[in-house]
Specification:
Blueprint lengths: L1 E5 L4 H18 L4 E5 L6 H14 L6 E5 L1 E4 L9 H8 L11 E2 L10 H17 L5 E4 L21 E4 L2 H6 L13 E4 L2 H5 L3 E6 L5 H9 L17 E5 L1 H4 L3 H4 L12 H15 L8 H6 L3 H7 L2 H13 L27 E6 L4 H15 L3 E6 L9 H18 L4 H16 L8 H22 L6 E3 L17 H14 L3 E5 L8 H19 L7 E5 L13 E5 L1 H12 L18 H18 L7 E8 L2
Parallel strand pairs: 1-10, 2-3, 2-6, 3-5, 6-9, 9-10, 11-12, 11-14, 12-13, 14-15
Antiparallel strand pairs: 4-8, 7-8, 15-17, 16-17
Helix pairs in contact: 1-2, 10-13, 14-20, 15-16, 15-17, 17-20, 18-19
Bound molecules: fructose -6-phosphate (F6R).
Fructose -6-phosphate binds next to loops.
Length: 628
Amino acid sequence: MANLVYSEENRFEKLAKQIADLIVERQKEGKNAVLGMATGSTPVKVYEELIRLHQEEGLSFQNVITFNLDEYYPMPAHSINSYAHFMREYLFDHVDIKPENTHIPDGSTSLENVEEMIKYCTGYEKKIADVGGIDLQILGIGRNGHIGFNEPGSAYNSGTRLITLDAKTRMDNSSHFMGNENIPRKALTMGIGTILRAKAIILMAWGPGKASIVQKTVEGDLTGQIPATYLQRHDNVQIVVDDPAAAELTRLKTPWLVKMCTWSDNSLRRRAVVWLCQKTKKSILKLTDEDYNENGMSDLIAQQGQAYQVNIQVFNELQHTITGWPGGKPYSDDTHRPERAFPAKKRAIIFSPHPDDDVISMGGTFLRLVDQGHQVHVAYQTSGNIAVFDDDVVRFVDFALDFNRDMGYEDKEVQKLYTNVKKYLKEKKADQQDSPEIRKIKGVIRRGEAKAACRFCGIPDENAHFLNMPFYETGQTRKKPIGQEDVDIIKNLLNEIRPHQVYAAGDLADPHGTHKVCLDAIFEAFRQLKETEDWVKDCYLWLYRGAWHEWSVDEIEMAVPISPPELERKRKAIFKHQSQKDTAVFPGNDPREFWQRAEDRNRATAQIYNQLGLAEYEAMEAFVRWHF
Ligand code: F6R
């Protein structure tokens, strides 16, 4: 039976401590600690903490033997995309582990002879058995329920083997490969049987993208279609999740079904009523006492009177979130409006982590703010220079060359650049990072697109600020941690504009991505400015969601309707980002284009409001206010 731990404070530190305790305990017994290791984004913070324990608290890895779950196939160990490289970069190179004690399935094993491959895989199993088996296995989980690379359909007793990666897995892992065609189709993985033989297992999952699969793994029936459900049969499994990954579990999603609740919490009541509407397919004002009683919410009615009163209250709360005046409605009563009426003309800054998040995530609101006469600035936090295809670089340098030639400008430098760029890109390997020169050109391409979108939305060129935050400029998907230099850039801009409103990408649940880092820098800037600057107390910080998720209706504090022509304008603004059009370098795990995702998402929000009995709009953008 799995032991479920969620919403843990300091969970990375606690997990690392648990591993460290095992290592130390074994040291005292004069024995080795055998660890099963995972790669991917999930264990990174735990590995960082293990490194800190080694460097600052003297934790030694001399008695540690590791076996990694998997490796892409084919994959040379020195490639930056290999899991062998990942382990060196994120752990092995920073601790005193003996290289001969680390084992990772070898992606360069020859497949010419299947017998040889089978021998290699059984050899991997034997090595594990020879050291007494795995003491503690660390696992992440794929959105399809894979553990290791045991894709749906894997057998309960499967061993180490070569498998074909599922389309969903390839898409999820695309962010590490420049272009989908470079993602391997196969992998070597320990089997489910191998994993279940570990004496103890810890499965970790972070972020809303894992919520649905965590729910199925913990609460669903045991099935080969979701290999992680096999963990239910192991008697020493810990499942550690953060709040967003736990969100679909019954005890959190619908706590009223499993325990008595304190209904004085408005947001819980709102969530429950929205859920009840969706369950009964009724609008809020049509819910009856029976609906509440028959769906596990009788205590809400018992505590708060009749359905009628609860319905009216929740209906009004939701009604008050809707406003066509995101900058506040001038000269009108703002008691129940999300934004203040005064000052009538506000200064707003939209922070955009990448050069297109502003228009994708809140293009409709951006246009409204400009149309309603507010002074709107956009601050592009990063250059976005890793997400441009190489052939666009050649195309733009070629343009510069032709432009100079036709205009009669001196073009010796550009000619040289063109030759260099073509040569560099021709010889560039699939897993090679770009030269600083290429990165600069890619940054210029994205800057041009962002400027075009700003012009389209109607703001002057000088209101588009390109912050080029240093943490991003590594040329790789892995970034540096944010430093005071990043925070200072944000502080300087905030102090220069002294905004009444700030909009930021509120991907609070994304533990490693650029959006979360960009948001942390904004939070830190506000934390520091609050101490000294008076304007901060008059500034509202509104969080929009990035390209991937939307706020749920019960969380939304401002919903801005978008009319059909506005949606069309928003789409055109997104189209200005041509390097991301048709197929993006980093599309993530969604095959739709960014404008399609944005429209589907904005339409879905409007539909939910409408199904709850509120007005019917074409689309809506949603925001939550952050109180600092
Ligand atoms: C990696 C592995 C995979 C990942 C899973 C989640 O060694 O075995 O099962 O744990 O795909 O990946 P992330 O952590 O990137 O979400």
